[in-house]
Amino acid sequence: MKIDVIISANHIDENKIKDKIVVVIDMFRATSVITAAINNGCKAVIPYLTIEETLEASKKFNKGEYLLGGERNAVRIENFDLSNSPLEYTRNMVNDKTVLMTTTNGTRALTKSLGAKRIFVAAMINGEAVAEKLININEDVVIVNAGTNGEFSMDDYICGGYIINSILKEKKSVQLTDIAKTSNMIYESNSNIISYVKHASHYALMKSINLDEDIDYCMKKSIIDVVPEYINGKIIPYNLD
């Protein structure tokens, strides 16, 4: 198994992800939202690049079958049902519903990764479950960090390091690129997470708009065992097997 890291959605290269297992991370907050929603009984999350595409897609659903979720610049989109807070995607809210979702960074990274062999959704909250899934598959992996507005994001990077570190604890024959090695080293030096992410620009943005509860939730390690998979245009539950 070889593991590589792509630092943002802007840096996704079709040649680098072709025939690879891709793991998309947007720790603050899209992939945390998707993981929480799937864990709480959501039938599927369908990611869209734009608000317009999301609204157009909603016309194909009957009232009561779907919810609109997402954000722009960390703020809920006008007339959408839910923001990009994982705490809103409770079982009472999302159970048996389809979530149509668009976000600034996360859904862009997902839709740009469609050339991969398989696409999994990862966050701190399901990191060990993702690691176990990758070990079981035992193929080359590319971790795609969503980043922030196309740029490198410290929070996604340390989350990838956590997943890499979890793999290395169970599997020794793993080849890491330099950027993947560095991601693991960052995690090993900051396993409490906050000592590193408190310096991230996206962390500062979330703090400035009082999203402290979301921050705390998204930094929790492996509280969910579900591994969502993006397949045939939908993100669905893919429980460990």
TrEMBL record:
The keyword Hydrolase applies. The lineage of its organism: Bacteria, Bacillati, Bacillota, Clostridia, Eubacteriales. The gene is comB. It catalyses: (2R)-O-phospho-3-sulfolactate + H2O = (2R)-3-sulfolactate + phosphate. Keywords: Hydrolase, Magnesium. The keyword Hydrolase applies. HAMAP family: ComB. It comes from the Bacteria. It is an enzyme of class 3 (hydrolase). Its EC number is 3.1.3.71. Pfam families: 2-ph_phosp (PF04029). Its cofactor is Mg(2+). Gene3D superfamilies: ComB-like. This is Probable 2-phosphosulfolactate phosphatase. Belongs to the ComB family. SUPFAM superfamilies: ComB-like. GO terms for molecular function: 2-phosphosulfolactate phosphatase activity; magnesium ion binding; sulfopyruvate decarboxylase activity. InterPro entries: ComB-like, ComB-like_sf.
